[in-house]
From TrEMBL, chain A:
It is found in: Membrane. It holds the Pfam family CbiQ. It comes from Microcella pacifica. The chain crosses the membrane at residues 23-56, 63-86, 106-128, 241-259. This is Energy-coupling factor transporter transmembrane protein EcfT.
C-alpha cells in the first residue's frame, strides 16, 4: 500500500492493538514525562516501554534510523547550548572562554533532552505501527465527529495530492522551456513560477471537490457507517482507562508535592 | 410520485447565468429524458454542457450562485425545492476531473469506493459486497489496496466512476467520463452504463466521442447557444447536416463515407452512414455484395 505517513505495514501484536489504545498510551506517557521533574523517568520509559514496543512492533531499525536523522542532531545542539551556555549555572565543571560546562546546565539539558526523546520516540513508534486508515476509523468509532476525521485524513493526504499537482505543473512549464538546472539558488528561483498555479489551482479545486463531496453524500447523515471496523476488546478499554487514570494520578501527586 | 408516462428528467424553460457573467449559459432550455435510457449530450466546448449536467443534478441552483429560472425535475420532484443531500440521492454526478472526485480522505481505493456508502450509512456487509461487485465490473481489483493518489489519470477516472456507480443512484449524470481512458477502459465504462440502463438506471453522458454515443445511446441531445437545438435518436441527430455548425464532430465513418461519396463511390441520394454497421451495409449494397 502506498501511504503518505511513516506507517510500516507489519504483522505484530502492536499493529493489531486498537489505535486509540496506542494513542492513549502515548498521551499518558507524554503527560507523565512532562509532569515529573526527574530526567531518569523519561529515559526509563524509553528503555522499558518505548524501545521494547518498537522491537515488538518490528520497527526497531526504522526507529533507530529516524532517531539518528531527526533527534540526535537536535539533542547534540540542545546539550551544546544548554550545557555550555546555561545562564543560571553556578557549579562550573569545565570552562573555555565564554563557554562554561555547569552541573545545572547539564541537568537542564538532560531533563529537556530525555523528555524530548520520550516524546519523539513514543510518537514515532505510534506513527510507525498505526495504519492511518485504522486510526481514523477507530477514532470515529469512539465518537469523533466524521467531519473532524475527514479534516485529519485530508491533511495527511494533501502531501501526495500537492506533489501530483506540482509535478504536472512542473512538467507543463518545462515543456514550455523552463530550465531547472544550475546552482541551488538558480533552481529555487526557477521553481517560483510553480507556486502561483499550484496554490491557485488548489484553491479552485476546493470548489469542484466540495461539489464531488456533496454528490457522494458527505455529511448526509450524522452517523455514517465504516468499511473498516477496528476491534476494541474489553481488555483494551480497561487498559486505556487505567493508563489515563495513572497519568492523571502522577500529575496530581506532582501538584500536591508527593513527587518532587 | 410521477405518473408512468412522465419523463424521468424534465427541464422546462431552464436558464442560468453564473454570478457576474454577461450572458446566460443556459437560456430557456427544454429537455425531457425517459427513465432507463442512455442519453448523450454533445456540444462545442463552452456550450454549457457541464452547467447542464450540474443543473440536472440539482447543484444548480442549490450549490451555485447566479441567476436561475425555469424548473428542473427528476422523477417528478423539483430538485431546487429540496436540499442538496436529497438531490445527490436522486442523481449521481461524476464530475469532469477525477482528481477532484477523489475524497482526499481515504487511504486505499477500497475505502475510497466505500466513502459514499459510509456517508449513506449502508451496513458494512452490503458495502463490502458492493465494493467487490463494482471492482469486478470495472476491473479495479488489482488497485483496491493502492492509494487513490498513486493511480494514473485513467485509473483514477475509473475509480471516480466506480465511486458513483456503487451508490446506485436512479439517475447517473457523467461529465466526459472517458476523457482519460484508453479504448479498453472506455469500452468497459460503456458496457457498465449499458448494464445499468438495462437495470432501469437513467444515464446522461456528456461526451465528445460521437461513435460511442451512436453505439450506446438511446438518444442524443445537442446543446448550442444555451439551448437544446436537436434531440432525437443517434441516427437522426448524427446525420443532421447542421451538426458541424453546432461544433459537434461527425463520426469518422460519416467523414469517410462523405469522402467516398465525393469520389462517386456512394450515391448522392443515399443517407450517409454513421456507424460501422451502416457503412458495411452501404458499401455492400453499392458493390452488390450480399449484406
Amino acid at each position: 500500500m502506498t501511504t503518505t505517513t511513516l506507517y510500516l505495514e507489519r504483522t505484530s501484536a502492536l499493529h493489531r492493538l486498537n489505535p486509540v489504545t496506542k494513542l492513549v498510551a502515548l498521551l499518558s506517557i507524554i503527560l507523565a514525562v512532562f509532569a515529573v521533574p526527574h530526567w531518569w523517568i523519561p529515559l526509563g520509559i524509553v528503555a522499558v516501554v518505548i524501545v521494547p514496543a518498537a522491537v515488538l512492533g518490528r520497527v526497531g531499525g526504522r526507529l533507530l534510523r529516524l532517531f539518528l536523522i531527526l533527534l540526535l542532531p537536535l539533542l547534540v545542539v540542545l546539550f551544546l547550548i544548554q550545557g555550555l551556555f546555561y545562564p543560571d549555572g553556578s557549579t562550573v565543571l569545565w570552562e573555555w572562554g565564554l563557554a562554561q560546562l555547569t552541573t545545572e546546565g547539564l541537568l537542564f539539558a538532560i531533563t529537556i533532552g530525555s523528555r524530548l526523546t520520550a516524546l519523539v520516540l513514543g510518537s514515532l513508534v505510534f506513527v510507525l505501527t498505526t495504519d492511518p486508515a485504522r486510526l481514523m476509523s477507530a477514532l470515529t468509532q469512539v465518537g469523533m465527529s466524521p467531519k473532524i476525521a475527514y479534516v485529519i485524513s485530508a491533511s495527511l493526504q494533501i502531501i501526495p495530492a500537492f506533489q501530483a499537482r506540482a509535478q504536472s505543473i512542473l512538467l507543463a512549464q518545462q515543456a514550455r522551456g523552463l530550465a531547472i538546472v544550475g546552482s541551488p539558488l538558480k533552481r529555487a528561483r526557477a521553481l517560483l513560477p510553480l507556486l502561483g498555479p499550484l496554490i491557485l489551482g488548489m484553491i479552485t479545486d476546493v470548489d469542484e471537490r466540495s461539489t464531488a463531496m456533496e454528490a457522494r453524500a458527505f455529511g448526509a447523515t450524522p452517523k455514517p457507517t465504516s468499511l473498516i471496523i477496528v476491534p476494541d476488546p474489553v481488555g483494551e478499554r480497561v487498559a486505556r482507562w487505567l493508563m489515563f487514570l495513572s497519568a492523571i494520578a502522577v500529575v496530581v501527586l506532582v501538584v500536591v508535592g508527593v513527587i518532587a | 410520485m410521477a405518473n408512468a408516462n412522465a419523463p424521468m428528467i424534465e427541464l422546462s424553460g431552464v436558464g442560468f447565468a453564473y454570478e457576474d457573467a454577461e450572458r446566460f449559459t443556459l437560456a430557456n432550455l427544454d429537455l425531457r429524458i425517459d427513465a432507463g435510457t442512455v442519453t448523450g449530450i454533445v456540444g462545442a466546448s463552452g456550450a454549457g454542457k457541464t452547467t447542464l449536467a450540474k443543473t440536472i443534478a440539482g447543484f444548480i441552483p442549490l450549490n451555485e450562485g447566479g441567476t436561475y429560472r425555469g424548473a428542473a425535475s427528476v422523477a417528478g420532484r423539483v430538485l431546487a425545492e429540496g436540499t442538496l443531500s436529497e438531490a445527490a440521492a436522486a442523481v449521481g454526478l461524476v464530475t469532469q476531473n477525477p482528481f477532484n472526485q477523489i475524497s482526499g480522505a481515504r487511504f486505499t481505493v477500497r475505502e475510497e469506493l466505500a466513502f459514499g456508502l459510509e456517508n449513506r450509512s449502508v451496513p458494512r456487509d452490503e458495502m463490502e459486497r458492493r465494493v467487490d461487485e463494482v471492482a469486478a465490473r470495472l476491473r479495479l481489483e488489482p488497485l483496491l489496496d493502492r492509494s487513490p493518489y498513486a493511480l494514473s489519470g485513467g485509473q483514477m477516472q475509473l475509480v471516480a466512476i466506480a465511486s458513483m456507480v456503487i451508490m446506485q443512484p436512479p439517475v447517473l449524470v457523467m461529465d466526459e467520463p472517458t476523457s482519460q481512458l484508453d479504448p479498453a477502459g472506455t469500452r468497459l465504462v460503456y458496457d457498465v452504463l449499458s448494464t445499468l440502463s438495462d437495470g432501469g438506471t437513467t444515464v446522461v453522458i456528456i461526451e465528445h466521442k460521437t461513435e460511442l454515443l451512436h453505439e450506446h445511446c438511446d438518444s442524443i441531445a445537442v446543446l448550442a447557444g444555451g439551448l437544446i437545438v436537436q434531440h432525437g435518436t443517434p441516427g437522426a441527430v448524427l446525420a443532421d447536416d447542421r451538426l458541424t455548425s453546432w461544433g459537434v464532430g461527425e463520426t469518422r465513418v460519416t467523414t469517410a463515407a462523405r469522402l467516398a461519396r465525393e469520389r462517386g463511390l456512394l450515391p448522392v441520394e443515399r443517407a450517409l452512414p454513421i456507424g460501422v454497421d451502416d457503412a458495411v451495409e452501404a458499401f455492400s449494397t453499392q458493390t452488390g455484395a450480399a449484406s
